Known about the structure:
Keywords (chain B): ATP-binding, Cell membrane, Membrane, Nucleotide-binding, Transport
Shape of chain B: globular
Number of domains of chain A: 1
Structural class of chain A: alpha/beta
Mean pLDDT of chain A: 90
CATH architecture of chain A: 3-Layer(aba) Sandwich
Domain ABC transporter (chain B): 16-264
Shape of chain A: globular
Low-confidence stretches of chain A: none
InterPro entries (chain B): AAA+_ATPase, ABC_Ni/Peptide_Import, ABC_transporter-like_ATP-bd, ABC_transporter-like_CS, Oligopep_ABC_C, P-loop_NTPase
Radius of gyration of chain A: 21 Å
Low-confidence stretches of chain B: none
Mean pLDDT of chain B: 87
Number of helices of chain B: 12
Strand content of chain B: 15-25%
Oligomer: heterodimer
Number of strands of chain A: 12
Strand content of chain A: 25-35%
Family (chain B): Belongs to the ABC transporter superfamily.
CATH superfamily of chain A: P-loop containing nucleotide triphosphate hydrolases
CATH topology of chain A: Rossmann fold
Strand order of the largest sheet of chain B: 6-7-8-3-9-10-12-11
Distance between the termini of chain B: 37 Å
Helix content of chain A: 25-40%
Order of helices and strands of chain A: EEEHEEHEHHHEHEHEEHHHEE
Largest sheet of chain B: 8 strands, mixed
Protein name (chain B): Peptide/nickel transport system ATP-binding protein/oligopeptide transport system ATP-binding protein
Number of strands of chain B: 14
Amino acid sequence: xxxxxxxxxxxxxxxxxxxxxxxxxxxxxxxxxxxxxxxxxxxxxxxxxxxxxxxxxxxxxxxxxxxxxxxxxxxxxxxxxxxxxxxxxxxxxxxxxxxxxxxxxxxxxxxxxxxxxxxxxxxxxxxxxxxxxxxxxxxxxxxxxxxxxxxxxxxxxxxxxxxxxxxxxxxxxxxxxxxxxxxxxxxxxxxxxxxxxxxxxxxxxxxxxxxxxxxxxxxxxxxxxxxxxxxxxxxxxxxxxxxxxxxxxxxxxxxxxxxxxxxxxxxxxxxxxxxxxxxxxxxxxxxxxxxxxxxxxxxxxxxxxxxxxxxxxxxxxxxxxxxxxxxxxxx
Amino acid sequence: xxxxxxxxxxxxxxxxxxxxxxxxxxxxxxxxxxxxxxxxxxxxxxxxxxxxxxxxxxxxxxxxxxxxxxxxxxxxxxxxxxxxxxxxxxxxxxxxxxxxxxxxxxxxxxxxxxxxxxxxxxxxxxxxxxxxxxxxxxxxxxxxxxxxxxxxxxxxxxxxxxxxxxxxxxxxxxxxxxxxxxxxxxxxxxxxxxxxxxxxxxxxxxxxxxxxxxxxxxxxxxxxxxxxxxxxxxxxxxxxxxxxxxxxxxxxxxxxxxxxxxxxxxxxxxxxxxxxxxxxxxxxxxxxxxxxxxxxxxxxxxxxxxxxxxxxxxxxxxxxxxxxxxxxxxxxxxxxxx
Lengths: 331, 338
């Protein structure tokens, strides 16, 4: 898909994740939520792909499907040359060591009855890595690596602050030396002054260990900071995918434009000059998406064709992909 | 955007030396320490702080919304309409609350009652505080929904909260808060639970309503970006105290407290230059086990010196309408007043 010299580590092709809706007296299937509806992207080794969008657009579902925490409806996900979406259970289990996840809520994703050392060691135990003594040593190394005090290894999660808890989650994700980590809103639950600490840690770890991230977030300014390329999702589809600077300096898709213009600016002098595109209405339901382009109900630049035909997701400039009829005449 | 303290008017709400303490099993938590501020008619005061900085507890205290125990208001005055709200009886307070002072909470799903339709919930304060009949209240409720930009208002009165989207629910909350024509509207993180495009809609709505209705608004948020766009004046809270207060442009252009400076330095933006590495405020906010005897920010502060460990600085004037609780003077690059 991309003419990059480096090989993509993760390759997602036409991924679909539909959830059935059951209803009625007999709990029959009466419809489906098209949470993710045919998306394709690559993540190159060592890069961070930012995935942004508003709540309900399907970005978290993408993250979970890519790691096969859901059985995908259709499409393929290839990580390091192996198709994970259709791998048999035992093979999948072996592949799991290569890919990990960091969750949004460090409170909910850590077992309150386990000590920090047990939490971090759990993936090692689960995958029979090393002897007990080696595992203990590895846990301490990991704690150093993420900036947790070794002396706290025997404490419980509730004794830590939000930012430290997120560090525990990061240490656990790193335990098996993964290549690829899905970060699902890793800083959304943290305070502003703590967010920067965690983001810097993620960047340092990436440089040290050569990690590849899929960074899912609704925080456009933080994604601008951490991502190399950015994909923008709307209602189950990627509407625009571009290198970071290109996307933020010159957004092409009308939704990306509106989304970026809506972000408040923490500088009154600049804030005054921002031209806001205020979108009217709300995101349609993914169980009943509009005909044609998914964004046609709110798009300020809507045309007749948008209400009829679905726009194709195509490369309109080198390494810039957009799904919009406005770019169809450009080759 | 109007800037600075425009015409000098008597404050409509004046809070003086408010102190709130929570009694818990593991000891006391001094959530609000000696907080003083005021807001003038028609002014939009932004209150910024991280979670646990005491911004919500301050607002809940002044309107008597905290259950006691565990909360204990240890001191201070809240002057509103010639009354001290902290000294007044429960009945008067009940009349003020939801009447002359309106409240909008963060999460519109949990603050609307799911078993009553929206019309009932808007009409409730109208009938209770304004003594309207059901028919009068219905007409007014309809007007209010139109005012906050909900289309097809008369039909939507019969709908239940779950039939509204997040942004629409927050509009309903605003309509309820505006029902009795409040003098002061307190909005506690009103857009935090919303998406950015919906947040932009709500911010436009509030700007518009303020022009139309001319009430004072206190807008609590952790998002400096939101504040930059709407506030006339900003108050920064940290560890239960007001550490800095200034007109919006002055605060962003010439911050005088190290915490405000650090906060402005850490946040990334979607416009302008992109730093290679984010600046970090090391450490974490303190645990407020006792009334502070030293500067609560000292352990994270790059400018601290010996005096900061001994004394808790009070707010010192740092310019017109601007004060900061810090011993360090950024203009001279040394201790203040030394």
